[in-house]
Amino acid sequence: MMLTANRHTALSALFVLIWSSGFIVGRLIVGTVSPNIFLGIRFALSAVMFGVLASVLRQTYPPVRAWGRHFMVGLLSNGLYLGGSYWAIGEGLPAALMALLGGLQPLLTLVIGVLLLGERTDGRALAGIVAGLGGLYLAVSPSLGLTGVSFGVLAVAFLSVLGITAGLLLQKHWLSKADLLPSLALQNAAGAATAVVLARLLGENLLIVNFTFALGVFWAVCILSGLGLYLFIRLMQGSGSVQTAALVLLAPPLATVQAWLLFGETLTMVQMAGFVLALVGVWWCRRG
């Protein structure tokens, strides 16, 4: 079912607000739980949540022979992206730089979609993405102190962005006809398995069960994995993957505003100008 213009705009705004809060959750859990232990719990609970909703709404699971595709999308979009980016930040990569690398996703989506999957776009979409990346850079530039980070850490961070880009494109081209909730249950199960393997390989063991941990899990499962991912896929099905991916450019600048409001972090005029430029770039891209 296609979305009306007003409903599409409202859902897009809600998606960006939710997606940007992922950076706040990442900061919230520091010192409380190891990254991949947190992700394993998040994805496992999300798989259960989507499985229960699929049963209640009587949605149909795909044939077992097709589960491999759902697992692959989950491994790329959930396990590789979040596991890789959390690990890179833990190894000293500034969170702002990870956000900037994440902003490459719309450009990668455009390139892969056009060259390999035959999607169509135009010059305005590319110009909008470039403007959005410029705004994203201005928004996170005060926090870009890159010192002592190895090439390997940067490579893992970039590979994680490639992972979610490939995963979401495969979501659209492989799984567009599958019922959404069973598919998300399978994808999150794959993400949970990936996180468990990474936690074991990296020797992670920190887990403090307190209010902060419970709040982070609730928000990550119900709001980010639940509503946020559902909105992303719903919007991608209702419009082009490039136009939807461009919304991701607004998440880091908006997270900067949220950090200013919640944690008292600095918000400069340059950062605010970057947010406005990113907003204009996304608007221009979505007109393309």
From TrEMBL:
Spans through the membrane: 12-30, 36-57, 69-89, 95-118, 125-145, 151-170, 182-202, 208-233, 245-263, 269-285
Record carries keyword DNA damage: no
Chief site of localization: membrane
GO cellular component, one term: membrane
Keywords per UniProt: Membrane, Transmembrane, Transmembrane helix
InterPro entries to which the protein is assigned, alphabetical: AA-Vitamin_Transporters (IPR050638), EamA_dom (IPR000620), EmrE-like (IPR037185)
Annotated protein name in UniProt: DMT family transporter
